[in-house]
Write a structure and sequence with these properties.
Distance between the termini: 34 Å
Number of strands: 10
Radius of gyration: 18 Å
Shape: globular
Length: about 250
């Protein structure tokens, strides 16, 4: 990495392919701690692969992926697990266990990954559910939750371990404009109150303009634009301009 403050997450000339299909080619970007990065691009440009690389679910053929001062590409499995503890994940479908209540879904990672007492676990769950507006719903099953409530529940589960970095895959997909804005506000509040670094893969232009400190635009596996929203709106690359103005 270059001299200066350590980024929360950084890609250095990262390449990833599946067989003959090149997904990412020499991709570089970084995001400072406590800021929000939105990754835009047409379908199939490598946005979701980027998240999987950050989570170390995939390995690049080339390049370095930094999570703070750790290069994921050089770590053993036990060290990868340690680095993953810094991250929370908000998946498109919320990824809740259908056979568990909302409370049990949030309790599971706390029981498995921390040494908190049951009293401490209850306190954390109540606090996080209150933050996302679900404090009266902890006994409900996932099937009883609306789409917006499921997103909030997925966010709550991502937050119970107090991650320094939060990854979100299409957080507004399937939601109406008002509910999507509410999810965006929850992400913004998380960044403001807990200094959480956000990395959001999205097609939602309105959400990007609300949430992003920086934007990376991918096309055909390459970064074609990077900067603040106004910079992307006036960028020389037409695809980047169109993606931020749709």
């Amino acid at each position: 990495m270059t001299n200066g403050p350590t980024p929360a997450v950084a890609f250095e000339q990262v390449s990833k392919s599946f067989g003959a299909k090149q997904i990412l080619s020499d991709v570089s970007w970084s995001i400072p701690e406590g800021e929000a990065l939105c990754i835009l691009g047409r379908s199939g440009t490598g946005k979701s692969v980027t998240l999987k690389l950050i989570m170390s679910l995939l390995k690049p053929e080339k390049g370095k992926i930094w999570i703070e001062k750790d290069d994921l590409t050089q770590l053993e499995c036990s060290e990868v697990s340690r680095v993953r503890r810094k991250m929370g994940f908000l998946f498109q479908d919320a990824a809740l266990f259908d056979s568990l209540t909302l409370y049990e879904n949030l309790m599971l990672p706390l029981q498995r990954l921390t040494k908190k007492s049951q009293e401490e676990i209850d306190f954390v769950i109540d606090q996080v559910l209150s933050e996302v507006g679900l404090d009266g719903d902890k006994t409900k099953m996932p099937s009883e939750l609306s789409g917006g409530m499921r997103k909030r529940a997925g966010l709550a589960r991502a937050l119970v371990l107090e991650p320094r970095i939060l990854l979100a895959d299409e957080p507004s997909s399937g939601l109406d404009r008002i509910t999507a804005a509410e999810i965006d506000e929850l992400l913004i509040r998380q960044k403001a109150e807990r200094k959480t670094t956000l990395i959001v893969v999205t097609h939602d232009v309105h959400g990007t303009k609300r949430v992003a400190d920086r934007v990376v635009v991918l096309d055909r596996g390459k970064v074609i634009a990077e900067g603040a929203v106004p910079e992307i709106e006036h960028h020389e690359n037409e695809i980047a301009r169109k993606l931020i103005s749709e």
